[in-house]
Amino acid sequence: MEIDKKDRIKKQLKQPLSREKLWKMYQKISKVLNKHKGTGLSGIDVPDASAATDTSGNPDCPKTWKGPWRSVTNPHEIAKVVCKMNANQNHQAHCTPFG
Fold this sequence. Notes:
- The chain is 48% helix and 8% strand.
- It folds into 2 domains: 1-39; 44-90, no CATH class.
- The protein has helices at residues 2-33, 75-90, and strands at 44-47, 69-72.
């Protein structure tokens, strides 16, 4: 009975240490996996309107665009493109009875 009690005490004393080790390991893993968390939008790809042809489609409709794309990394230009896309998205219902 005395040996069983000592074993339980040892386990209870080791438990916080092992939990702390696990917590530190999960923190390290989280930092490695979420390196860029919170950095925001760093770039977007948009249809390259300057390379539009008859077969590439409409550069204002990225869903059907088949031509080349260009990367936008300038924050001011990203904001303009995102605002334009949001305005187009918000005005989709404008011509419907609900709009």
